[in-house]
Write a structure and sequence with these properties.
The chain is built from 13 helices and 14 strands. The protein is of the alpha/beta class. It folds into 2 domains: about 250 residues, 3-Layer(aba) Sandwich (Rossmann fold); about 80 residues, no CATH class. The strands form 4 sheets. It has a 7-stranded parallel sheet, sandwiched between helices. Helix 1 links the parallel strand 1 and strand 2. The longest helix has 15 residues. The protein is globular. The two termini are about 30 Å apart. Belongs to the gluconeogenesis factor family. One of its GO terms (cellular component) is cytoplasm. Keywords: Cytoplasm. It comes from Lacticaseibacillus manihotivorans DSM 13343 = JCM 12514.
């Protein structure tokens, strides 16, 4: 947006910049919404390995892909009146043993998944119903379970259980949740096509091991991210996360990504340089937060990454977040630099 609030329309060779954002959690819809408002052609690829909260309960009842992250991204890209948006996002607070804590949108997604034979076709139908500008793709059409191996040699299954284990994660992988499915997890062709056609592919922000990597561990999806000619951007988290990345530098985050995919593939890293004020964070409410991520520019450059440092910090509600507008502007600047030319 310009200073007077007028939308700035920017194009690459007669079209809107194509941005694919891969991840999950609360940070994903913030970035997706800001990119949409700055007129990018956005495709969101959302993790399906979440097993907590309302999504987890619904998944346990009817064995569908957890809908919570997908619901929030749909709303970020939807063009619908405020009252409809509020109803879709409404979370029951009754004492009913089933409905308590469930978001209406999660129930709608679960119902459509049964009607259409999977989460992927269900979300495409719902995208039309909600007037979504862009694309929302589940990383897989079937529920996946996250598995972790820790540095002490033990293993654990389940996103919430892995985070709660309090151990250092060595490696993660995903498997089909349904024990009767014996095939390798796969992303749908539309996901792969979007990644290959993108100007930029964005990873994060979000939990490294439980929001970003589960997507990349789907083999054909990870292979596409390595092969695409798009600029691959990693948004470094502002804070480290207990049970996942305590004491990690930004370079260590990237190294984990490279190690899991077997080769360097991240081109650009966005790093926040604005300090987090002491005693601002409500650590009871945001109890998964540990400490600010430290920067290791020499290590990032040694890995061949371009580093963009700026004030990406937004403080609100006694929490620490990325400023979606600033991050989106930087992503689009990179998209226009890269255009449709091949990287490297």
């Amino acid at each position: 947006m310009s200073a007077n609030g007028t939308k700035i329309i920017r194009v690459i060779k007669g079209r809107r910049p194509k941005v694919v954002v891969i991840g999950g959690g609360t940070g994903l819809p913030v970035i997706v919404k800001a990119l949409h408002e700055q007129d990018a052609d956005v495709t969101a690829v959302v993790t399906v390995a979440d097993d907590g909260g309302s999504s987890g309960v619904i998944r346990n009842y009817i064995n569908v892909v957890p809908p919570g992250d997908i619901r929030n991204v749909l709303v970020a890209l939807a063009d619908m009146p405020g009252v409809e948006r509020d109803v879709f996002q409404y979370r029951f607070n009754s004492n009913d043993s089933f409905f308590s804590g469930h978001a209406i949108g999660n129930l709608i997604i679960a119902a459509l998944s049964e009607m259409k034979g999977g989460i992927f076709p269900a979300i495409q139908v719902l995208s039309k119903m909600l007037n979504v500008d862009g694309h929302v793709y589940p990383a897989s059409n079937t529920p996946l379970t996250l598995h972790a191996e820790f540095t002490d040699g033990t293993t654990q299954a389940g996103e919430a259980e892995i985070s709660a284990a309090g151990k250092t994660i060595k490696r993660i992988h995903v498997e089909e949740t349904d024990p009767d499915d014996h095939f390798e997890p796969r992303a749908e062709p539309e996901v792969i096509d979007a990644i290959m056609a993108a100007d930029v592919v964005v990873l994060g922000p979000g939990s490294l091991f439980t929001s970003i990597l589960p997507n990349l561990m789907i083999k054909n999806l990870g292979d596409a991210v390595k092969k695409t000619q798009a600029e691959v951007i990693y948004i470094t988290n502002i804070m480290t996360q207990k049970g996942e990345t305590e004491n990690f530098t930004d370079a260590q985050h990237v190294q984990v990504l490279h190690d899991h995919l077997g080769e360097p593939f991240v081109d650009t890293v966005l790093v926040n340089i604005s300090p987090v004020p002491a005693d601002y964070l409500d650590r009871q409410r945001y109890n998964e937060i540990s400490s600010p991520v430290k920067s290791d520019y020499p290590a990032l450059r040694k890995m061949g990454c371009r580093v963009i440092s700026a004030d990406f910090l937004k403080l609100r509600d006694r929490g620490v977040f990325h400023d979606g507008d600033k991050v989106a502007a930087e992503i689009l600047n990179l998209a226009f630099q890269v255009g449709t030319m091949k990287k490297r």
